[in-house]
């Protein structure tokens, strides 16, 4: 297979290296709006660079991986689909709800597969938690706790175009909550705070957030988010049932320590960031995309899944701004 990759930043370079390692992939062709960055990435990884996105689309691709800036996602997705090229795109589909719905409308009636990058669906822990819920071994769920705590904030220039903490960071939790529980969220109540750098406030964003979600069967879910977890990158999901509990992300590298006397410290080292925490999941996700691109499998996470997660992020952002509970139905279009 000949695969293209648009966007050679950190995650793009990582994905290009992963794709190159698959036996089924004969060539990886990369492009970036910064042509020099694309050339440097290609030279380092031993893949092919072209000078522009137009050249990338003219390279005879069997599939396209989109890791460009979020505001470029809609045009790249729709252009690939119009050209009959299966596409994998890192979340989100677009920077806002209007853009997301426009892409979905454009794709209506097309049979070209699109896979959106929610890598937690390919993590072994989340997969096990989903199976435990589906089997009934946990009993009925009474509480779900989701945690995404970054070790440090992103660059200041990223924040104004990120969409905000709930859309940029929390959207992963919202997607995986739906996927693991098999339920839909009916209402949210979210708050946010700022105790870190001023650039979050200047962008109208928050550096820490908390949300309570109510599922359609009455289960209560809490979501905790922060850009300032200096102990290390911490992503967990606690699923608590009437019969048993299960925790995702509670391993030797989680940045936690017990305050109880005599309890040994975890061996570590802690995860420094999301790339290290989810590297096996990213590999599995891209391997699945090869099957999707070859039409051997259906997309495991399409644009409608991404839309549902985005609705929850939108509802949380509205709740944060207006300081009130928000029914998800309020933001649906």
Automatic annotation (TrEMBL):
Q: Name one Pfam family in it.
A: GFO_IDH_MocA_C3
Using the record's annotation, list all stretches that form the Gfo/Idh/MocA-like oxidoreductase N-terminal domain.
Answer: 2-118
Q: Which SUPFAM superfamilies match?
A: Glyceraldehyde-3-phosphate dehydrogenase-like, C-terminal domain (SSF55347), NAD(P)-binding Rossmann-fold domains (SSF51735)
> Which part of the chain is the GFO/IDH/MocA-like oxidoreductase domain?
126-246
Enumerate the InterPro entries for this protein.
Answer: Gfo/Idh/MocA-like_OxRdtase_N, GFO_IDH_MocA-like_dom, NAD(P)-bd_dom_sf
Oxidoreductase found in the keyword field? yes
Keyword tags: Oxidoreductase
Enumerate the transmembrane spans.
Answer: none
User: Family assignment?
Assistant: Belongs to the Gfo/Idh/MocA family.
Name of the featured protein: Gfo/Idh/MocA family oxidoreductase
Organism this protein belongs to? Amycolatopsis samaneae
């Amino acid at each position: 297979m000949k695969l293209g990759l648009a966007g050679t930043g950190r995650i793009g370079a990582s994905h290009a290296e992963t794709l190159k390692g698959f036996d089924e992939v004969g060539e990886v062709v990369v492009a970036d709006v910064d042509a020099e960055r694309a050339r440097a990435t290609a030279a380092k990884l031993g893949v092919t660079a072209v000078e522009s996105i137009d050249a990338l689309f003219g390279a005879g691709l069997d599939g396209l991986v989109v890791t460009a800036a979020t505001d470029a996602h809609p045009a790249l997705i729709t252009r690939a689909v119009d050209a009959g090229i299966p596409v994998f795109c890192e979340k989100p589909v677009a920077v806002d709800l209007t853009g997301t719905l426009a892409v979905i409308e454009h794709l209506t009636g097309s049979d070209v597969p699109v896979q959106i990058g929610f890598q937690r669906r390919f993590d072994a822990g989340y997969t096990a938690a989903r199976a435990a819920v589906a089997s009934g071994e946990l009993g009925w769920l009474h509480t779900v706790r989701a945690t995404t705590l970054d070790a440090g904030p992103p660059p200041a220039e990223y924040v104004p175009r990120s969409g905000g903490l709930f859309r940029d960071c929390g959207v992963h939790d919202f997607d995986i909550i739906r996927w693991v529980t098999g339920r839909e969220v009916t209402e949210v109540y979210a708050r946010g705070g700022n105790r870190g750098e001023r650039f979050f406030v200047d962008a109208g964003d928050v550096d820490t957030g908390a949300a309570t979600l109510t599922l359609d069967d009455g289960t209560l879910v809490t979501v905790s988010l922060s850009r300032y977890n200096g102990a290390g990158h911490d992503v967990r999901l606690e699923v608590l049932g009437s019969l048993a509990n299960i925790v995702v992300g509670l391993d030797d590298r989680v940045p936690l320590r017990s305050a109880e006397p005599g309890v040994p410290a975890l061996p570590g080292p802690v995860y420094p960031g999301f790339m290290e925490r989810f590297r096996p999941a990213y590999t599995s996700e891209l391997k699945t995309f090869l099957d999707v691109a070859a039409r051997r499998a259906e997309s495991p996470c399409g644009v409608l899944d991404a839309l549902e997660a985005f609705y929850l992020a939108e509802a949380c952002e509205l709740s944060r701004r207006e300081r009130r509970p928000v029914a998800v139905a309020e933001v649906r279009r």
